[in-house]
Design goal:
Length: 314
């Protein structure tokens, strides 16, 4: 087993789901987020500020703030400021619907490394089918507002049977608005996608179409990073088992997981020190239960839907 984690004294970044509450109800959402989906035990703003300082003191250089919709978290701005004041780079992962010009101003002042905006359609009809409650124009405006303020904007496009033919148009739109990167890949059989799989899932021919669009647009827009990630969920699990990510994945309630597709909690920021969290995370990847899970999912890929039901690994 290639275990490069052993050479690291701290994670390279901290992926933090600030809240499971969201202003949208996306039919493919891994986290099953929504307006009423906040966990009852999410970290308070005070707890988040304490954790921010611990992350900075532990030498972690980078934090990704997601949700749900991170802008809905009551302590978002203080936490964002805390990270930047302590020299930690920040990425924000948002649906963009709440980013007005004034919000873009506030974000720009704190100089994030990047902001990722999800755009899953080139028309309002397609976009709102994928993202109920969502307004495409607001998300596109967010890209423009952020780009105009010198922020590096990345766009995430989740391809499904509903929207994959619109990928080329999406790329054209977002590049025109200033996006510097567009990422897409295979949809995962997790969360809300499980209940809508019959209208979402793509076949090999569909993915070849997507790869062709990505190749053509990469040639057309040489200064924009346009990437299709070809690895499916099972392949991803097998790769990660051999070469685990050097990042911490933390849910809104402080529970630490290995991956969204693995149903085990390895640590809890309310109970464990940073040193303990990092050691338990590394130890978790070696645990026989994790290897067994990957083997079972390899035999029956749809079993990964059960990753939503969490249990403590230790």
């Amino acid at each position: 087993m290639s275990f490069t984690l052993d050479f690291l004294t701290a994670p390279t970044y901290w992926s933090w789901q600030l809240t499971n509450r969201c202003n949208l109800e996306c039919i493919h959402c891994l986290e099953m987020s929504g307006p009423n989906a906040a966990y009852p035990d999410e970290l308070s703003p005070k707890e988040s500020m304490n954790l921010c300082k611990k992350i900075a003191d532990f030498g972690i250089p980078y934090a990704a703030l997601s949700g749900g919709e991170p802008l809905l978290y009551p302590g978002f701005w203080d936490l964002f400021s805390c990270f930047r004041n302590n020299g930690v780079e920040v990425k924000i992962e948002s649906n963009g619907n709440l980013i007005s010009e004034s919000v873009a101003d506030r974000i720009a002042k704190l100089e994030p490394r990047s902001v990722q905006i999800s755009i899953d359609g080139a028309t309002q009809k397609t976009y709102s089918t994928m993202r109920p409650r969502g307004v495409l124009e607001k998300a596109l405006n967010a890209i423009r507002y952020l780009s105009e303020r010198g922020i590096y904007v990345e766009v995430e496009f989740v391809p499904t049977k509903i929207n994959f033919k619109e990928l080329g148009d999406v790329i054209d739109k977002v590049v025109e608005l200033g996006a510097k990167a567009v990422y897409t890949g295979k949809i995962m059989y997790l969360g809300n996608a499980v209940n809508h799989w019959s209208i979402l899932s793509l076949n090999d021919e569909d993915y070849k179409y997507i790869e062709g669009i990505v190749k053509n647009k990469s040639t057309e827009y040489k200064d924009v990073k346009i990437v299709f990630y070809p690895v499916d969920l099972v392949e991803e699990l097998r790769i990660r088992l051999e070469d685990p990510p050097s990042s911490i994945l933390m849910m809104a309630n402080g529970k630490v997981r290995l991956l969204n597709s693995i149903p085990y909690v390895v640590a809890d920021v309310r109970k464990h020190s940073m040193e303990e969290i990092w050691e338990r995370y590394k130890k978790g990847w070696r645990h026989p239960k994790v290897k067994e899970w990957v083997e079972e999912v390899t035999k029956n890929p749809k079993m990964v839907a059960k990753a939503f039901f969490l249990e403590d690994l230790f």
